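Q: I'm building a small set of examples for a reading group on sequence design. Run inverse folding on the following structure and report the sequence directly after it, with nothing in between.
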């Protein structure tokens, strides 16, 4: 069992509050860490404030070198980092490897973006008062950032807060999920090896009371939160005057038209629906299939779902394993039972065993059922037929969420119509809404959040514009 100390103000510390992390698959203890309290958080804040000016003035090449060092070290330790991630989250090792690779890429992108921070020149003589004047708009670091990351991508979603903060020149204090804190504490060891000012990054698992100070404390200038909508919107209410960026998930829709390649759509929808047991913000949850191909699609889809390899997440062949805990598996089971009681039909799956819930496909669902209306965050998808493309667009939009949507079509007119009419932050053509690369703008509308991640876009949120007006 590894002991992972918290990273507080550039120092590794223990506290009296010992916290054991277990593997959701077999409940074995995989590591031990500690929960920081008000005392530790205060130390981190004070230390971060003491290096705030140094971070703001850090040369681009210095930030670039630090970010690339982190990326290269993480790359050299890829297998160990992925194993830690796999064991603490029950994420199949092949997906844990993929997440580790994405984290490496996120640091590399941040390193590149640190060399081209935003600025612009403006001619001011559009009106008579501006004759012989010009403006230079420069973006300055906002200051201390509070980051709160979730359990489902414990490494890369934390990196999507840490790497942009370093590139922007902002100190950051990150609270990882108490279910999966080990990946980020392992990352802290790598960050500590760089020449970044000590205190520029702190990574502290905390209890809920201490973590709430990240939201309410006015010394933080920006809050970046990834998690559930109910928690996120309450945080916005409690955050006071600080800037807030929320990435809150959704119940993503997929449309498969009769012009699509059915086999390709089936393969991608199986992955989009059941990768990491559907515990993904852009999990392909609601699937609308043109009625001409519905039976063929459903038959091939269910066949592939039934062939998914279930087992120990550390096994390279495993494609689906346990959910993060039994509580969430029970919740998903109850939602499925409730849908069936209201008329839905189970095409496959539906029977829970401990924290494992099998890949489950439902049909004859209604939009007001929880499995449609809410974020399942589990291995459940719905299949429903549609007659007209516009009807499918309407069905996708009949949601309180709007993160991403996938559309399988070979008609340019439908591509354009989907982009114009779908009420989401991203439209993915001939792929599932689960698609994401780490330099693209990523985020949603409606209850799915506000602001955008994706390194360049996160950097902009972490900076503020200031204009210099001078005579020409």
């Amino acid at each position: 069992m590894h002991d992972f100390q918290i990273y507080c103000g550039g120092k590794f510390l223990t506290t009296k509050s010992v916290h054991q992390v277990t593997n959701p698959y077999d409940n074995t203890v995989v590591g031990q860490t500690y929960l920081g309290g008000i005392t530790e958080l205060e130390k981190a804040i004070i230390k971060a404030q003491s290096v705030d000016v140094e971070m703001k003035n850090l040369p681009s090449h210095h930030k670039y070198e630090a970010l690339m060092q982190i990326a290269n070290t993480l790359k050299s330790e890829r297998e160990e980092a992925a194993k830690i991630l796999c064991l603490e989250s029950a994420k199949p090792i092949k997906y844990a490897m993929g997440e580790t690779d994405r984290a490496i890429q996120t640091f590399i992108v941040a390193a590149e973006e640190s060399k081209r921070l935003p600025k612009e020149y403006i001619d001011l003589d559009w009106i008579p008062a501006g004759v012989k004047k010009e403006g230079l708009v420069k973006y300055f670091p906002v200051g201390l950032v509070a980051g709160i990351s979730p359990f489902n991508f414990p490494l890369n979603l934390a990196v999507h807060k840490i790497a942009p903060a370093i590139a922007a020149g902002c100190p950051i204090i990150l609270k990882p999920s108490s279910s999966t804190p080990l990946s980020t504490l392992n990352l802290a060891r790598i960050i500590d090896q760089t020449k970044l000012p000590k205190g520029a990054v702190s990574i502290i698992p905390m209890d809920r009371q201490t973590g709430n100070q990240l939201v309410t404390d006015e010394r933080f200038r920006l809050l970046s939160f990834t998690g559930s909508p109910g928690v996120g919107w309450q945080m916005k209410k409690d955050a006071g005057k600080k800037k807030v960026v929320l990435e809150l998930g959704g119940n993503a829709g997929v449309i498969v038209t009769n012009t699509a390649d059915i086999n390709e759509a089936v393969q991608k929808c199986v992955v989009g629906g059941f990768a990491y047991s559907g515990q993904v913000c852009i999990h392909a949850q609601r699937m609308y299939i043109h009625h001409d191909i519905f039976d063929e699609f459903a038959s091939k889809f269910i066949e592939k779902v039934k062939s998914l390899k279930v087992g120990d997440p550390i096994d390279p062949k495993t494609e689906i394993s346990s959910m993060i805990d039994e509580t969430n598996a029970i919740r998903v089971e109850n939602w499925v039972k409730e849908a069936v009681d209201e008329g839905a039909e189970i095409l496959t799956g539906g029977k829970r065993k401990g924290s494992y819930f099998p890949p489950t496909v439902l049909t004859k669902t209604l939009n007001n059922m929880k499995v449609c209306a809410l974020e399942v965050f589990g291995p459940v998808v719905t299949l429903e037929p549609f007659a007209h493309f516009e009807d499918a667009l309407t069905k996708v939009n009949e949601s309180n969420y709007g993160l991403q949507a996938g559309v399988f079509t070979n008609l340019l007119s439908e591509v354009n119509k989907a982009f114009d009419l779908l009420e989401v932050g991203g439209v993915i053509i001939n792929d599932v809404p689960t698609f994401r690369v780490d330099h693209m703008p990523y985020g949603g509308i409606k209850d799915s959040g506000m602001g955008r991640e994706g390194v360049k876009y996160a950097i902009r949120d972490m900076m503020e514009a200031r204009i210099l007006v001078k005579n020409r």
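The chain has a mean pLDDT of 97.
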